[in-house]
Structures are given as structure tokens and as C-alpha cells.
Amino acid sequence: SGSGSGTDNGRGTDWKPEYDRTNLQGTLHVLRAAQESGARQVIFASSIAAMEPAPCGETLTEHTPTSEYIPYAKSKSMGEKMVRDASSRLPGVVLRIGGAFSDWCELPPLCSLIQLWAGRSPFRRLLVGTGTTGMPYIHRDDVVRIVRSCLNAHEALGPYEVFLAAQQGGVLHKDLFDAIRHADSGSAAPAPISVSPRAATLGLWLRHAIGSLTGCVPFERRWMLEYADRPWLVDTTYTHDKLGWRCAEGMGILDRLPTILEHFRQDRRTWEDRNRIRNQGRYGYYG
């Protein structure tokens, strides 16, 4: 759902050149070209991460305002505003996309968890916080389906619409831990060992120190620990009602994990190559 990879200063407070190049300048060029060509609709790929997690007991909806809590979110918020400002001349749809994954994973935070919990590390039972960190996911095939639904429903949509491209609710880390360990071993997962965010901060600092020497810097950043046990949970009712769309049965992340883990075990080189390319922000399409 746009630019968001690479290293940062540990706080998520740096503005990366690709945010401006892709999310801002790229959006501006597409809007101009669409208007000049007489396009009937433009679809902007935003992100669930453009919104901060809702307070405990609440959910994010299509009407939740974006936030500028990190530069990535700010760039998406600015992109959404550009689409909204142009909507009087060119109808626009904003898709706030969840964690988009494939049957080979290709989603950096999920890749990191699989490598930890399905690997052979002595830390493979560690779980930060109470396990209620989480987010909504969406399979790439369902991303294609919701884009088609937006195109098919064009005449029935307003000049500016915001939809949530994700499964209803979200998936918590404690559920992912159980599913990954079970898919990996074929048996019930052992109880995870809870680690406080403070202790995890020290461990992450050590991992980054080692990674700076080995060239294998972990995906996680220290600022992410501030969102431990603060899940992104969504209510996609408006999207479902307006588009008649929902994630296809059997395509949820928990449904697909056995296939993802099979690829992880049986074709590790391809799995790692595809995830390394994605984690480095070198996007590609595989049939």
C-alpha cells in the first residue's frame, strides 16, 4: 500500500525520500494524468496504518480520521487529502489497506514473526506484552477483488469514498503465535513466554547492534514497542454494505498460514528470496 520500508532512527520520526516520491509526488502526477485523460475514477492506496489504534474497546472505521503520528502515516494522510481535494473534478476512492500478504508471506512484520516463532531460535517462544498487539490482514487476491469492486460500483459511489480493505476486526499476536507454531509442528503450541516492552527494548537494541555488524538488521524498530498491546482493530461494515465486498472465505491470514508455513519449510530459498525483495522495498509480481 505504498512506500514504507527501510531503516529509520528507531523512533519512526524520519521522513524518507520515497514517501515524497511515491505517496505525494507520485499521487500528484497520477491525479493530473487522470484528469487530463478524462478518467472517471482514481483509486488511492492508503493504509490502515494511516490511523492510530483506537482506544480500548473501540474500533477504527472508514470515518476515522488519519493521524500524523509517524511520517509514513503523515504521507498517506497527505495523499488522501490530495484525492479528496480533487474529487470535485475527479471522483476518488481511498483504500486503507491492511497487512497485505501472499501465500509466500511477503509482509515484513509477518515475515519477522514467522522467522522467530517457526525458526530454531532459543527465543522462539517469546511474545511481547500480553499478546494483544495486532492488526487486520488481507490476502493480495482480495486486494485485487476490492479494486474490481470499486470499479464495478463506480456509478453508485459518491465523489469521495474511503473504504477499509481488510478483514473484519483484526488478528492478535497471541492467535498468530498459536497458529504459526501449530502449522510449523503439527501439534498444539506450547505456552508463549511473555516479555515486557521494556525488556523487549533492550533485546531489540542488542539485535540492531548485532545486525549493524552482520548486515541483518531486524525489521522491528523501538518506536513500534509503544504500540504493544494496542491493536489496530477495524469495523468494515460500511465497506461491506457499500461495495458488497468482503474478504473471501478461506483467505484470512489464519486460514493461509499452513500454506505459508509449507512454503517456508519446503522451499526456503524461494521463500527467503521473495521476502527479502519485499522487505527491501523492491516490489514485484509473481503469478
Molecular structure report:
It is a single chain. With 287 residues, the protein is α/β, with parallel strands linked by helices. It contains 9 helices and 9 strands. The strands form 4 sheets. The chain has a 3-stranded parallel sheet with strand order 1-2-7, with helices on both faces. The chain has a two-stranded parallel ribbon with strand order 3-6. Strands 4-9 form a two-stranded parallel sheet. Helix 2 links the parallel strand 1 and strand 2. It is globular and about 55 Å long.
Quick recap of the structure?
The chain is an alpha/beta fold.
Features of the shown structure:
disordered N terminus, alpha/beta, 9 helices, globular, 287 residues, 43% helix, three-stranded parallel beta sheet
Radius of gyration: 19 Å
Number of helices: 9
Give helix % range.
40-55%
Q: Strands across the major sheet, in which order?
A: 1-2-7
Mean pLDDT: 89
Low-confidence stretches: 1-11
What separation lies between the terminal Cα atoms? 19 Å
Strand coverage percent? 5-15%
Main beta-sheet strand count, sense and barrel state: 3 strands, parallel
Total beta strands = 9
Secondary-structure element order, as H and E? HEHEEHEEEHEEHEHHHH
Structural class: alpha/beta
